[in-house]
């Protein structure tokens, strides 16, 4: 079933013939462009969000203490632990691994879709995604996106192999490998379970009943074996609730609001569709100014129409696109229904970005083909070029050679705003100047640990009492000797005096009763400073 989907129009045919003749040069050029921009936009700093540092610390804990990396998907911390075990916490090297994963992902995507869909469609998709700074950003981050992007590609490869084999004969080995890939994706990101759902839906449409049975049994068997081994080694429960346990609630941090209702899940789907399609997706393809944060229901509807229209045409003309559409619909459906609206992070759709773009462009190309108008075909190709030019321009504008040069020379604070620079500098000071037995409480412990050369910190994220004796008792029971009070902005873009004040409020409650408990030992910065306090328990006569 190779290339049955060639566009009939003259304009498309000419472009397709040119892309076919030069496909090796084109994929090489795309990979070179991605590599150049990945280097120019390479970010050697730990992100303020904190998830990347959390992955690193879980890898460190696995290597040093044998602690199983629960809560988030375990596979990515286990992958990082290989590098940490060999080289230590080398931030640049860990980040470079993401670039390698994504670069290999581009090549593998090309190989899997080559000669199964039109070259014009394939190269349009790869060019736009590879030039988008939103996508490139993850080539220098220790987030799980890069690994997941690569892991999901074999799912397409094995399903496409089933499509190519139109006979009633079936081989069990590819299905076992497909099962391994699906389970690996699930263990990287929980949403990876959608790959199994997508494959089962496609097999149902294709009436591949035997393969469905083998796939279900093998996925269940592989996952059960993994859980059995995990339980035997760590004895930490059969299943990890982790982040997933908060998704059924209306608010992930205010569980007292109760669990979500059916109408609430429907509202999530609608709200998230608008957020991730009419805002984030358009930002990523350069068709919306990044400064514009508004959503647009009409644009969301248009994108859904293009997606559904392309899926319908693919059902009749191209099974490879059809499976891609089913996969994207499943992954986005899970994301839009399960996640609370407040997350609003484009990284949540990054692993599926290229596939989303491919199906939407396919819908546009099919619309142009149906019109049989050369002008419409030129407009569609012009839109592709405009999108590529727009993301290219935005990526160029994001390049900061001065910061990159200073980062490469060892100044890992360049590029941070003053609040983060001072906080992380204080963490480094703690790692160098305080005795080994000192145990310091902070708001962002994993980030602090990386800049303190692996020194452990105690994290204070929230508290459930205003009793000063109880709050001080908690510090004493955990043998906290110091506290860092930073000035981290609530709005990262503006220094308006409003800060994340969890630590401030914690210390304030205690100091109202015991004003001499906290002794200022060190300060870094005058604008948005960070303070280091020593906890003097004797001043409160705690425990007497």
UniProtKB/TrEMBL annotation:
Cellular location(s): Cell membrane
One of the GO BP terms on file: lipopolysaccharide biosynthetic process
Domain of life: Bacteria
Record keywords: Cell membrane, Glycosyltransferase, Membrane, Transferase, Transmembrane, Transmembrane helix
Top-rank EC class of the record's enzyme: transferase
Regions that span the bilayer: 25-44, 71-89, 96-113, 119-138, 145-163, 175-202, 214-233, 290-308, 320-339, 345-367, 379-397
Enzyme Commission code: 2.4.-.-
Membrane topology note: Multi-pass membrane protein
Gene Ontology CC terms, in alphabetical order: plasma membrane
The name this protein goes by in its record: Glycosyltransferase family 39 protein
